[in-house]
Amino acid sequence: MNIEKLHQLFLESSGVTTDTRNIKNNNIFFALKGENFNGNTFTQEALNQGAKAVIIDEESYYLNEETTIVVEDVLKTLQKLANYHRNQCNATIISLTGSNGKTTTKELIFHALKENYNTIATQGNLNNHIGVPLSLLQIKEDTQFAIIEMGANHQKEIEFLCSIAEPDYGYITNFGKAHLEGFGGFEGVIKGKSELYTYLTSNNKTIFYNYDDKIQREKLSSYHKTFSFSLSNESEADIQIETSIENEFIQANFQDSKITSNLIGFYNSTNIAVAITIANYFNVPLDQIKQGIENYAPTNNRSQIIQQNSNKIILDAYNANPTSMQAALNNFDKTAGKEKYVIIGDMLELGNEASKEHQEIINITKGFHFNKTITLGKIFYNCDGQTEKFEDFEGLKKYISQLNIKNSIILIKGSRGMKMERLLEIL
Questions:
Q1: Is position 95 annotated in a ligand binding site?
Q2: Which of 49, 79, 109 corresponds to the end of one domain?
Q3: Are 339 and 416 in the same domain?
Q4: What is the domain-level CATH number for residue 138?
Q5: Is residue 102 a known part of a binding site?
Q6: Which residues form the Mur ligase N-terminal catalytic domain (predicted)?
Q7: Has 260 been labeled as part of a binding site?
Q8: Last residue within a domain, chosen from 79, 111, 131
Q9: Beta-bridge mates of residue 29
Q10: What's the pTM?
Q11: Domain that holds residue 387
């Protein structure tokens, strides 16, 4: 079946899925393969659950021409279908990547735009070679904007995702010390993330950027289709947005309007500012921008504020790298509270830089005024200059239980693989 016919079948369906647990009636099931699974083996199960058709790449699972379509490679077919669908739609594609803050920024842009336009955005963290196609296939005939998040941990990944999404606009949140192992160091991060810039400049597309970020400003100095924002009133950016912290939350002042977010940490200022910038660029009325941003509240372990018994917990356990960890600690040091505890877990995927970067975080904490800094994980455990350190969760769990922390404010942060949210049950 060629891609045009497959696309027509897609339009007649209720959407696509790659997981039999989520099949809805009339879905098309793409039988993807992984290291520990083979979607082809679920062909009959998918049909039993109401799938309209199943896309497979092993002929032994073929049933009949009405229900099973054999292709050379299921994943490549999903990607081709997404790209074809993207080019049949009228939606404007805004893609974003970066080391920190991608998902929060995506949500803020989505909330600001959807007040005035029919807008969709990447759901959850579906931002890789499978997630981006699935996100693009959420675009409907009446969709006006699609905010597509792109994640990467090695070179050429963003370049490939751009070839599928073909974005009209783009934004890079920042260049940080994330996935150093895969990218080959910090310079590799800059090179890899900048593949979004390369695509946009090569195709004469518009780039939004943070004028205050020297790396981005210099990279884009000779490109003519840019639109910038700054947190400084004295900059030469296209838009200036003043931000401050009011009662722990970030507040933005723009065109004599105060926009009070539900986000803590000054590091979120640029995330809010770019959402205002993009919505304003596309002529969303200011009162609707304000409403959209003020309606967004973080979830899923991303800078969540949780009141638990007498303690206030800042749960930032979705992910961590040296850049985001230092920003979180700096912010926590400035947060009001007499009794302050920090519980941090290992930062993963740092390769040869892991020991050095973890030791640097330990050294930084000595300059802060915390009651205790407690670490979890083998990398932190091998660092010098700390007393409360635990290799495994059971040891930490026992220690925390004995501390009997009350009337305190607690920061919890670590890489996704550390599952730091488990501490909520103890605290």
A1: no
A2: 79
A3: yes
A4: 3.40.1190.10
A5: yes
A6: 14-85
A7: no
A8: 79
A9: 17, 54
A10: 0.87
A11: 304-426
CATH number of the CATH domain containing 405: 3.90.190.20
Which tokens in the block code for residue 121? 């955005």
Q: N- to C-terminal Cα distance for the chain?
A: 56
**Does residue 146 sit in the same domain as residue 42?**
no
98 is in an annotated binding site: yes
Q: Give the phi and the psi of residue 349 in degrees, each rounded to 5.
A: 60, 40
Does 395 count as an annotated binding residue? no
Tokens 């304003």, located at residue? 280
Question: Would you say 173 is a known binding-site residue?
Answer: no
Per residue of the chain (427 residues), what is the pLDDT tens digit? 899 999 999 999 999 999 999 999 999 999 999 888 999 999 999 999 999 999 999 999 999 989 999 999 999 999 999 999 999 999 999 999 999 889 999 999 999 999 999 999 999 889 999 999 999 999 999 999 999 999 998 999 999 999 999 999 999 999 988 888 888 888 998 999 999 999 999 999 999 999 999 999 999 999 999 999 999 988 999 999 999 988 889 999 999 999 999 998 888 999 999 999 999 999 999 999 999 999 999 877 777 888 888 899 999 888 899 999 999 999 899 887 789 999 999 999 999 999 999 999 999 999 998 999 999 999 999 999 988 999 999 999 999 999 989 999 999 999 999 999 999 988 8
CA distance 223 to 203: 12
Q: Are residues 41 and 110 in the same domain?
A: no
C-alpha to C-alpha distance for 200 and 207, rounded to whole angstroms: 7
